[in-house]
Every structure is written in C-alpha cells, then in structure tokens.
C-alpha cells in the first residue's frame, strides 16, 4: 500500500535514520506515524481523504476563487501571457467547471475521469465527488515557463441572485474545501463594480476556514474607477470581507488591473504597479516555501487527527454494552459541545483544534458508536513523538536544502521583463532619478538651493552643522531621517557642508517628502561632481 514511499539507498529507513529529502521525510512520517491513527478512527470519512505520493511531490498550486466576470481566467492568461486549452472568457459565467492549468510537454486537455486515475497527479481523491463533478473538471496542459514552477486552479464563477438557487449537481463548497487544504495560495478575486458577497460566495469563503494564512484578496479592474471612488470601493470591500472572514487580522488586498490592456484611469498607475509587483513577489516565493507549507499542513492535520481520535474513543466509552444504544447515541450527539469542553480540559487541547460541532453532529448520525474503536494510547504517543522530535529534524533539513540549492523562483510570462530596464518598478524615480543622465541631476534645482545656502552664512565656502540643521528641520522630517540624509550628503565626512553637499541634502529631503525611500549608501550618480574620484569633463564644466 505504501510502496511509493522511497527507501534510503543501501538499506531500509530505520527509526532515527536521516531522510535524503524533506519530501521523503514527510511521506514517511505520514504513512508510518499519522496514517495508522487516521485509518483506525475513520478520519478519512469525517474530514479529509488520505494523502498520496502526488500530494507531497506536486508543484505549488494557486487556487482562484471569485464571482463570475471578476477576471479569474483573464488573470491566469495575464500571468501565462498566452491562451491555455479550454479557456473561455466573457462577461457571462463562461468557466462552468474546475480547470487545473498545469505544465505538459504537449498542449491538450485531460478530462476529469481520466485525471483522477492518474497516480502522478494530486487529484485521485476527487473521485469521491462523483461524475457530476468530474464532468466539470479538466486538466489543461501546456508547455509554459510559469507552469514549470506552479500550477493554477481556475474555478467556476460563483453565482448570485436567482442563479445561485440552481444546484450544480455536486457539493461546490466541499470541493473548494478539498482544494483549499492542498493548495499553497488562495486568491479571492473581486471586481471594483461587483463587491456584493452572495450566499454561495459566502459559503465558499467559509469552506476555506482554517486556511486563512493562504488567502490573498485581489481587487481587480481597479482602473475603472477614479481615486475617490477607489477609496470607497476599498472600504466597502473590507467591510464585506469582515462579515465573512471572522479573523481579527485585516486580510491583504492587492489593487490593480490584471490584464494586458491600457489603463482606463491612469492617476493611480504607480499604486497599481507597486501592488502588482507585491503580488508577483508573493506568488514567486511559493516554490521556496512549498516544503514548509506541506510541513505546516501535516502538523495541522496531525493535531486534527488526534482530536478526532479523542472524540471517537470518548463516544465509544460512553455507549452502553447492551440496551438503550440509540437513545444514548442521540444524547451524546446533543451533548457534543459539552464533550468538547471535557476533552479540552482532560487532554489540554486548544478549542481551535476541534472540528465544527454542527458538522460533526450531522455526520455522527450515520454511525454506530458501539463499533467505534477504543482509545489506543500507542497511536497517540506515536503522533506526539512525531510532532515533538521528527518535525524538528525536517525543519532543519528544509533550511539545509535551501542553503545548498535554493528553489528556483517562478519565472516566465508576466514575471519576466517587469523587473529590469526602464519599465521596472521605480526606474527613473526617487533615488534612481538621473541615473542614466550625463549631468548631475541636482543641478536642475541647485540655483534655488544656492540661494538658501548663502543665507546660512557659509565660512570658507561651507556651513556648519548647526546652521544646516536649522534649515533641514523646516522639512519636518524626523531626526532619524535627517540624520541619515546628513550622513549621505556629507561626502568628505568633515562635519560641514559645501554648496554641492547642501544641494544634495536638499535633494534627498525632496525625495523623502515625495514618498520614496532613501538608500543606505549614496549612488554614484548622486555624488557631487567635485567629490568624485574621477570627475568627467562635463562634470567639471557644470561645476
């Protein structure tokens, strides 16, 4: 059954022996320590199907969720910079099923029923959702550089109004929960003109409960409103999300227009560029954090499996041996919240580790409690030992693997070409302004700075720190920032400023007031001409 767990070369994996890779270690710990506990207490029937080799070895996955026409499929096309098989885009609900966009040498579509029997794909357990779902599930394969590092899951547009009353034929929320447990990032897409969260969308977000650390929110088509409207839209979105995502932390929202069309409203262009780069960096980091995410998910699964074992064994213990079983079963189901409290105190378990009371009460109706297994202490101790010692070993291995061979970041598609060159974020702005100009950029405003300089009573062509401080304080910047500016501007470190150094200080103050960051060291193009080691002819003329 566990033939896919790789053994160390030259012998079998003995207790305490090191694994060759983190992936191998995760697989081995799961099959030897956690899986026996799950199988004994019917964990797979109540919570989540058993994990397979592909679940550990698969590339990081990104799940896109949103109402219809919010730009989910367009977002994927924007990242890949090419169409993918099975893609349909339109204002109506065009994507009517789940599409797993993955790497493949040959472009094509694999239907759901064939997909769930492929042991190399992490979708075999989706077979439990039946033909109604599998007929709406395909894998779109294509040779694309982005897909060499990540896979993307496109979902049907979530319905609103009358349309959401029509049954899909399968449990949409449960399918989302299944994907949510296995993906590395969940992106909720909203349209600037479509902020209402329908009942189905609300259920979908609730199905992702427990995966809050994976969730990011994208407010798409933000260029279709002006700045004032965008502020209102952003506030309304945060208010709507606050009612559905019940966490004290504010969820991260990225603003932008994620398609390769001209911006309709350009006044927030800088904001959109910065937001898109932040989102790209988040997605690009997924391969680097994939092993850590799988380790984290295994820990969460182990904690839930332990709690589930305590619940099942407690129900078994409370059942009578002969008469009144049905009545006792109904009583125990009604008392389940109280049982949770008892187990919390008895085993020192956090309330957040327990599954939903309502869901457990519904599922327990279909089981004979007398057939449940009793508490097997050795199985619990084995999982406790895994959490206490084995996980720490894998954590060390993750750091060692990253230091020896860091995983490649996501590249290709929209991730290429936006970092370097004149269209890179911040190019020619702030501290980098004037980097490719022949003249010293500070010269453009030096005549104004000189007027201020000569009112500060320079001696031998220089002003003291006391006089410079009075003028620099007029900027109202904090002393920590002004101190950094002084250090950058005082090129010869003599504690005084000449006219060029003073002009440089004023230029750096201007940059900071415009909202840009200061460098730790002064770039070559900002060094005053008279302080350069090898001043050029044009520098000496301008000086």
TrEMBL record:
Xref: InterPro entries: DUF5600, Dynamin_N, EF-hand-dom_pair, EF_Hand_1_Ca_BS, EF_hand_dom, EH_dom, EHD_N, G_DYNAMIN_dom
Positions of the EF-hand domain: 477-512
Residue span of region Disordered: 522-543
Keyword vocabulary terms for this entry: ATP-binding, Calcium, Cell membrane, Endosome, GTP-binding, Membrane, Metal-binding, Nucleotide-binding, Phosphoprotein
Name of one Pfam family that matches: Dynamin_N
EH domain: residues covered: 445-533
Membrane topology: Peripheral membrane protein
Entry's localization field: Cell membrane; Endosome membrane
Major localization listed first in the record, in broad terms: membrane
GO molecular function: ATP binding; calcium ion binding; GTP binding
BP GO annotations: endocytosis; endosomal transport
Residue ranges annotated for the Dynamin-type G domain, each copy included: 56-287
Cross-referenced SMART domains: EH (SM00027)
Gene Ontology CC, one term: plasma membrane
The protein, known as: EH-domain containing 4
Source organism per UniProt: Mastacembelus armatus (zig-zag eel)
Taxonomic lineage: Eukaryota, Metazoa, Chordata, Craniata, Vertebrata
């Amino acid at each position: 059954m566990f033939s896919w767990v790789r053994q160390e070369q030259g012998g079998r994996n003995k207790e305490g022996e090191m694994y060759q890779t983190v992936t191998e270690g995760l697989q081995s710990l799961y099959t030897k320590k956690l899986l026996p506990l799950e199988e004994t207490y019917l964990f797979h029937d109540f919570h989540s199907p058993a994990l397979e080799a592909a679940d550990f070895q698969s590339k990081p996955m990104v799940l896109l969720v949103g109402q219809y026409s919010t730009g989910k499929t367009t977002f994927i096309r924007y990242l890949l910079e090419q169409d993918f098989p099975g893609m349909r885009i339109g204002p109506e609900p065009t994507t009517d099923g789940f599409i797993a966009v993955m790497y493949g040498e040959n472009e094509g579509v694999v239907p759901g029923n064939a997909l769930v029997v492929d042991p190399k794909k992490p979708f075999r357990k989706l077979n439990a959702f039946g033909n109604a779902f599998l007929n709406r599930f395909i894998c779109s394969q294509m040779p694309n550089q982005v897909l060499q590092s990540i896979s993307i899951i496109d979902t049907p547009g979530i319905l609103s109004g009358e349309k959401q009353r029509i049954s899909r034929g399968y449990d949409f929320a449960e399918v989302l929960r299944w994907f949510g447990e296995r993906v590395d990032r969940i992106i909720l897409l909203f349209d600037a003109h479509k902020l209402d969260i329908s009942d189905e969308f609300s259920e979908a977000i609730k199905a992702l409960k427990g995966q809050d650390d994976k969730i990011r929110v994208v407010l798409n088509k933000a260029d279709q409103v002006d700045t004032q409207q965008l502020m209102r839209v952003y506030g309304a979105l945060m208010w709507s999300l606050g009612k559905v995502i019940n966490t004290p932390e504010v969820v991260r929202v990225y603003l932008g227009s994620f398609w390769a069309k001209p911006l309709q409203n350009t006044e927030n262009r800088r904001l959109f560029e910065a937001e898109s780069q932040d989102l790209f960096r988040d997605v690009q980091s997924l391969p680097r954090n994939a092993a850590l995410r799988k380790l984290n998910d295994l820990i969460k699964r182990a904690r839930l499996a332990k709690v589930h074992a305590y619940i099942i064994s407690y129900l078994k213990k409370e059942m009578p041996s002969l008469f009144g079983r049905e009545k006792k079963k109904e009583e125990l189901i009604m008392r389940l919240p109280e049982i949770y409290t008892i187990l919390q105190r008895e085993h020192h378990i956090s309330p957040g580790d327990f599954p939903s009371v309502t869901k457990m009460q519904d599922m327990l109706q279909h089981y004979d409690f007398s057939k449940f297994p009793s508490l097997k202490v050795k199985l619990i101790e084995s999982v406790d030992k895994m959490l206490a010692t084995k996980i720490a070993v894998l954590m060390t291995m993750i750091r060692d693997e990253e230091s020896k061979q860091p995983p490649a970041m996501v590249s290709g598609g929209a991730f290429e070409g936006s970092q370097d060159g004149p269209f890179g974020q911040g190019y020619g702005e702030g501290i980098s302004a004037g980097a490719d100009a022949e003249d010293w950029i500070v010269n453009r405003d030096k005549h104004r700075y000189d007027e201020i300089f000569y009112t500060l009573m320079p001696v031998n062509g220089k002003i003291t720190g006391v006089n410079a401080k009075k003028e620099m304080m007029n900027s109202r910047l904090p002393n920590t920032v002004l101190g950094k500016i002084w250090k950058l501007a005082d090129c010869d470190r003599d504690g005084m400023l000449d006219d060029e150094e003073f002009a440089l200080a004023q230029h750096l103050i201007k940059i900071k007031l415009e909202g840009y960051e200061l460098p730790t060291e002064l770039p070559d193009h900002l060094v005053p001409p008279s302080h350069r080691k090898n001043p050029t002819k044009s520098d000496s003329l301008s000086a």
